[in-house]
Amino acid sequence: MSSDERVLIGMSGGIDSTAACLMLMEQGYRPVGLTMMVWDNGTDSVSEAASLARHLGIEHHVADVRKDFEKTVVANFIEEYLHGRTPNPCVMCNPTFKFRLLAEYADMHDCRYIATGHYSRLVDVGGHRHICRGIDDTKDQSYFLWRLGEDVLQRCIFPLGNYRKSDVREYLRGRGYEAKAQSGESMEVCFIRDDYRDFLREHCRPEDIREGWFVSTDGKKLGKHKGLPYYTVGQRKGLGIALGEPAYVLKLNAEHNTVMLGSKEHLKAGYMLVEGWQSPDAAYLFDGDRRLSVMIRYRGKAIDCQVSRVDERNMIVRFMSEASAVTPGQSAVFYDGDIMLGGGYIANQRMLGRYLNSDYASKLVFR
């Protein structure tokens, strides 16, 4: 590796990308900054990143990709909610938008590597490159990166993966960036400032979000709901209905515009159906005696599990400990210890019973 190897780094102007940029320079790399304008509230990021680049004396480029971002990431976010699923926009954005652009700009500016301020690590296992959890459990972002292909991972550098957030703040203080070290966290979803429901109301047509019925597990109408996209599986608060006992959202039916309610006990699951899975090494995921775990939501507890392949697109997951609120549209991300093995989307669970309660069940092999 050359002592001045060029690295294209995503610069938001925030605490994490600032620290990552400084670390790269200390490690002998020559960073080239790229700031993406993805939403109308991103002008502050551009000015902060540009100011930092001038201070450090490094190249800095700005990509105004707001229209493309809205057509891909934002449109998918809205569409998923309208169809009764709960999306992870970062999971959508990373492979199809953020890292794609980073790779394209890296090629344009003669950069071999790309870097970001994600709290994740990389590890090579059996000839395949895998993402590994960052050492800070409270900040680990491997969950959002499962769709990145090996071609991208081979170029990635994650300088913050071996640091805790508190260490990063101290690192910046030690280099004279006191104000930056004290700055707050970035928004969890970059284009939503407050409640996602307000965003949907602003960006959807009135006819897209209509009142419908809350129903019980036996189909009885319980009262009116305000619009299917305003609810998610496992939700208890803000339902706007009193049933005399705690009620939770169990299922969303976009076809009939109904929201099924039930008890917390109804949310428990022994299995789930996952679709669209991908892995750097499928044999590593489906074969062997290793102990797998799965995360079914960001910052959720990893659940011990076994998996069985249904076909090239679908798998069934058997939970080995208690799981609750399996939510269609969310990501199911699999791990062997800290090594992330791949992931998929939690599917509509209506087909699950057909697999488990038929002759097909005898063909399932869980590992």
Fold topology:
Elements: E1 6-10, H1 15-26, E2 30-37, H2 43-56, E3 59-64, H3 66-82, H4 89-108, E4 113-115, E5 120-125, E6 128-133, H5 150-153, E7 156-157, H6 165-174, H7 178-181, H8 196-203, E8 212-215, E9 221-225, E10 248-253, E11 258-262, E12 268-278, H9 282-286, E13 292-295, E14 303-309, E15 314-324, E16 331-336, E17 339-346, H10 352-356
Parallel strand pairs: 1-2, 1-4, 2-3, 4-7, 8-11
Antiparallel strand pairs: 5-6, 8-9, 10-11, 12-15, 12-17, 13-14, 13-16, 14-15, 16-17
Helix pairs in contact: 1-6, 3-4
Subcellular location: Cytoplasm
Active site: 93, 190
Disulfide bonds: 93-190
Core attributes:
tRNA-specific 2-thiouridylase MnmA; transferase; 10 helices; tRNA-uridine 2-sulfurtransferase activity; 367 residues; tRNA binding
Structure description:
There is one protein chain. The chain is built from ten helices and 17 strands. Belongs to the MnmA/TRMU family.
Helix content: 25-40%
Oligomer: single chain
Number of discrete helical segments = 10
The helix/strand class is alpha/beta
Global shape: globular
Radius of gyration using CA atoms only: 22 Å
DSSP summary, beta strand count: 17
| N→C terminal distance | 40 Å
Q: How would a crystallographer describe the biggest sheet?
A: 6 strands, antiparallel, barrel
Keywords: ATP-binding, Cytoplasm, Disulfide bond, Nucleotide-binding, RNA-binding, Transferase, tRNA processing, tRNA-binding
Subcellular location: Cytoplasm
Enzyme class: transferase
Pfam families: tRNA_Me_trans, tRNA_Me_trans_C, tRNA_Me_trans_M
Short summary:
By secondary structure, the chain is of the alpha/beta class. The chain is built from 10 helices and 17 strands.
